[in-house]
Automatic annotation (TrEMBL):
SUPFAM superfamilies: Thiolase-like (SSF53901). Residues 179-247, 262-353 form the Hydroxymethylglutaryl-coenzyme A synthase C-terminal domain. Residues 3-164 form the Hydroxymethylglutaryl-coenzyme A synthase N-terminal domain. It comes from Loigolactobacillus binensis. Belongs to the thiolase-like superfamily. HMG-CoA synthase family. CDD domains: init_cond_enzymes. This is Hydroxymethylglutaryl-CoA synthase.
Amino acid sequence: MKIGIDQISFHTTQYFVDMAELAQARNEDPNKYLIGIGQKKMAVIPSTQDSVTLAANAAAKILTPTNRQQIDTVIFASESGIDQSKSGAVYLQSLLALPQQVRAFEVKQACYSATAALQLACGYIALHPDKKVLITASDIARYGIGNAGEPTQGGGAIAMIISKDPKILALEAESTVLTENIMDFWRPNYATEAKVDGHYSGHMYVDFFDEVFAAYRQKTGMTLANFAALAFHLPYTKMGLKALRSVLPQADAGTQQRLMANFEDSRQYNQIVGNLYTGSLYLSLLSLLENTNTLQPGDRLGLFSYGSGAVSEFYTGILQANFKAALLPKLHQAMFAARQQVTVSTYEQLFQQQLPTDGSTVELDLSQDPAQFVLTGIDAHQRQYRKQY
C-alpha cells in the first residue's frame, strides 16, 4: 500500500522586508544576505498572527467537505507553541470546524518535528487506511533586532494531508536517523527569542547530513544517481547548498548538474519567506514541485530533515502520476504577489509589538490583516481567535 503526501499548502503573512534594505540598515554589504546566506526577502509577522492562525490559514487551502470527514488525527508541529499544556492542534480543530471525533496533539523537536509527525502519520495510516491525517508545521523564527541571527528570521506554515494512495509523494520505507545532544540552538522557557551558535549549527547541519546520507547509501545501496532531486531543511538557503555541495563529488557531471538545477527550484520560495523552522523542509519540497519543469512521475526525491539539538533524518519518496495536478501554484503565487513590502523601521515596530506576558487583557487592531484566521487578543489569560470570512 502506498502512503504519503496527498495534499500540501503554504501560508505566510502579508508583509515582508527586502533583505538588501535590511543589510544597508545594519551597515552590511547586501551580498552578505543575498549571496552569503542566500536570502532575498524575509516574512514579517504582525501581532495578529501566531503559530495557530498561520497553521489554520495554511490548512484551510486544502480542506474539502470530503477529506474533513476522513481526517481523524491532527498533528501540530511547532517550536513556537502558544501554551505549555494545550496543543495548537486543539485550536485548529475548532477554527477549521473539523469533526470532534479526532485526536489532536502537538509535537516538538526544533525543526525536525514535522518529519516526526509525518512518520507517525504514515504508520497510523498503515493501520487505518480509510483515514487521513492533517499535519501543520507552523513557526515564527525570532532572534532579535540587529544581531547575527536577524537575517535568518521569517515565518509561516505548511499544511499536509497524509493518506493512502497519495496524489503527490509516496514515501519509501527505508530511512536513516541520527540524534546527538548538542547545544547549537535552543530557546529556554523564559525567552521569547532563540539562542543560537550559528557557525557551530551550520557545521553540525552538514555533518549530520553527510552521516545520515552515508548511512542511507550503505543501507540501501543507492547513490546520488538514483535521485532526481534532493530537498533540504532550509533555515536559510545557503545552508542547504553547502550540504548538497558536500556530496556532489560522489556523482558524475550529469547527476551534479541535475541536482544543482533542482536545488535552485527548491529554494525559490524559501528565499522570499525566510525561516519556517519546522516547515522549512516542506516549503522547499513545495517550491521544488511547483517550480520544476523537469521532474516526472516515478522520480525519486531525497529529503533531509534537521532539528537543532539535534535530530536528523534522511528519507525518500516517489512522485506520483499527475502530481502536478494536486498542487496549488496559482494560489501560492497570488499570495506572494499580494504581499506588501515594509520599511526596516516598520518591520522593527511590528517585531516589537508582542503580546503581554502577564496575561493582561489586550484587543488587537485587525484592520490591516486580510487573513481568514486572525488572533484578536487576550482575555482572561486566553488567546482569542476569529474567522474573518
